[in-house]
Amino acid sequence: MVQQGRKIWFDGRLIPWEEATVHVMTHTLHYGDGIFEGIRCYHCSDGSSAVFRLQEHVERLFNSAKILQIEIPFTSEEVSSAILETLKANNLREGYVRPLAFTGEGGKGVSPGNAPVHLMIAVWPWGAYLGDEGLTKGIRVKTSSYARHHVNVMMTKSKICGNYVNSVLAKREALEDGYDEALLLDTDGYVAEATGENLFMVRNSVLTTPPGDSILLGITRDALITLARDMGYEVREERITRDAVYTADEAFFTGTAAEVTPIRELDRRTIGQGEAGPVTKLLQQEFFRVVLGDNLKYAGWLEHFDL
Question: Does the model's pTM come out above 0.90?
């Protein structure tokens, strides 16, 4: 359950959490034509709080809106300010941020017609998405029976609400089969991504991650590519087969929610030594140094604010 906060930002106003409601005839509720972002803020070592890569997340929100052809009734600067305002209003030093733009009441068919576009921003405390133990020991993953969306079936570069039914089905299947997460292949049978994370594998200290063809271009994925290269690792963006992952030295997921989560097993095949490998550990350690403000080289990735 999401921990209820004090306020939600809704169409330009901070209102009590319990009053942030919509009508059952809201178009997005019926057809999924909304867009969202997942963003984290961290309580930094210096006592301040900071949102990780705020501008990149807001830019992706607006790109998703463009792809879906809905117009957010606020500027990107106003949305960025509203996110910080909402965090302060909830006195939240560390947690998760969820902006959501959606179409309201209007057209009752598939087309939203002239339905208004609303924007809300909610924040709440949220720890390790795949569990604290998962961050340290790694997780068990199942290749899903569901394929990731084809690029001409759903727009894979956007966080459209309806896209995530694919993730819901895959995640439910994995959990019911006793796994922690699902790995989805693309429609050509190559590794795409998980239900909300990007994948990296490591072999001979070389990192490989699927190319941007059918995946969501994760902001944490981009950060890890930059970090790894700056640390001297070679990073390749190329197609991966699932049996290549079986025989990798290491594998891990990245994502706003998942952060850097090791994979210890895929389809009952142990990955490497069955625990977080040395490269994964180093990258995970460096990632947390960055988000906690301890690596000033990447200070530009943090939007600091004081409560």
Answer: yes
